C-alpha cells in the first residue's frame, strides 16, 4: 500500500471533511498500521475522524471528518439513519421484480465474522431494510442499485444472498467463485448528507472501479 496515491482518491475536500473513493481490498481501519485510515491521516498530516466504515472487499465512499465537531454532527446523521446511501452491486441472478424491498432480522456471529438471518428478535438481532432497482445485465451477471435504510454490518451481502442474488466474488455469502484480488463487486457509490456547517444537503459520489465488468455496465447504462 506504500504506493497508494491517496490524493487521487479524493472525491470531495473542504474544511469539515474529506470524502475518499476507497479501493477494494484495503481495510478502512484495522490493527495493522497500513490501513486506509492510516494513509488518509498521513495525506492530511493530521488525525482524521472516521464517520463510518465499509467492508474491506468493498470499494467506494468513505467519509472522514477533519475536526471533532464535524465528526459528531456527521456521526449523528449516520446513527439516526438520515444519510441516504446508494450502492451498486453486480450479482449472479436477475431479480424477479425490477424493484423490490428486503426486510430481514440479522445477527452478527463474531466467531465466523459473518451475518446470519434469523426469524425473530433477540440478543444482538437487528432489523435490516434495503431497497433495490434492477439496471442492466451482461450474459452472466446483473447490475443492481441498492439503497439501505439501516446500515448493518454485511447487510447488503447477507440480504441479497438470502434471496439468491449473490454478489460476484463474495464466497463468504455463497458466490461460487472468488475474485482473484479477493474483492467483491459491491461499490458504495453515493452519500447524501447535511453539511455540518452550512446545513446544506449535498450528495457525494464515487466512480466505479476501472475494471472489466464495471466498465461493461458503465458503457451499458450511460
What does the model show?
The chain has 222 residues and is α+β, with helices and mostly antiparallel strands. The chain has one domain: Pseudouridine synthase, CATH 3.30.2350. The chain is built from four helices and eleven strands; from the N terminus they run E-E-H-E-E-H-E-E-E-E-E-H-E-E-H. Strands 1, 2, 3, 4, 5, 6, 7, 8, 9, 10 and 11 form an eleven-stranded mixed beta sheet that branches. A hairpin with an 8-residue loop joins strand 3 and strand 4. It is globular, with a radius of gyration of 17 Å. It starts with 9 loop residues before the first strand and ends with a helix.
Keywords:
222 residues; Pseudouridine synthase; 11-stranded mixed sheet; 4 helices; 11 strands; globular
Topology:
Blueprint: E1 10-13, E2 17-22, H1 36-44, E3 49-50, E4 59-65, H2 68-80, E5 84-91, E6 99-109, E7 114-118, E8 126-137, E9 142-148, H3 155-162, E10 186-194, E11 201-205, H4 212-221
Parallel strand pairs: 4-10
Antiparallel strand pairs: 1-2, 2-4, 3-4, 5-9, 5-10, 6-7, 6-8, 8-9, 10-11
Amino acid at each position: 500500500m506504500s504506493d497508494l496515491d491517496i490524493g487521487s482518491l479524493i472525491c470531495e475536500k473542504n474544511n469539515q471533511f474529506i470524502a475518499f473513493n476507497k479501493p477494494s481490498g484495503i481495510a478502512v481501519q484495522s490493527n495493522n498500521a497500513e490501513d486506509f485510515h492510516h494513509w488518509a491521516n498521513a495525506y492530511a498530516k493530521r488525525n482524521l475522524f472516521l464517520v463510518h466504515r465499509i467492508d474491506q472487499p468493498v470499494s467506494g465512499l468513505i467519509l472522514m471528518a477533519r475536526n471533532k465537531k464535524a465528526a459528531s454532527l456527521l456521526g449523528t446523521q449516520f446513527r439516526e439513519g438520515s444519510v441516504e446511501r446508494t450502492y451498486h452491486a453486480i450479482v449472479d441472478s436477475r431479480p424477479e421484480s425490477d424493484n423490490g424491498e428486503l426486510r430481514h432480522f440479522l445477527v452478527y456471529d463474531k466467531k465466523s465474522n459473518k451475518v446470519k438471518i434469523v426469524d425473530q428478535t433477540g440478543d444482538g438481532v437487528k432489523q435490516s431494510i434495503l431497497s433495490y432497482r434492477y439496471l442492466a445485465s451482461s450474459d452472466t451477471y446483473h447490475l443492481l442499485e441498492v439503497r439501505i435504510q439501516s446500515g448493518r454490518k454485511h447487510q447488503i451481502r447477507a440480504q441479497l444472498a438470502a434471496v439468491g442474488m449473490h454478489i460476484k466474488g463474495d464466497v463468504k455469502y455463497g458466490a461460487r467463485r472468488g475474485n482473484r484480488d479477493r474483492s467483491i463487486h459491491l461499490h458504495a457509490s453515493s452519500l447524501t448528507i447535511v453539511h455540518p456547517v452550512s446545513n446544506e444537503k449535498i450528495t457525494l459520489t464515487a466512480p466505479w472501479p476501472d475494471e472489466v465488468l464495471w466498465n461493461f455496465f458503465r458503457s451499458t447504462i450511460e
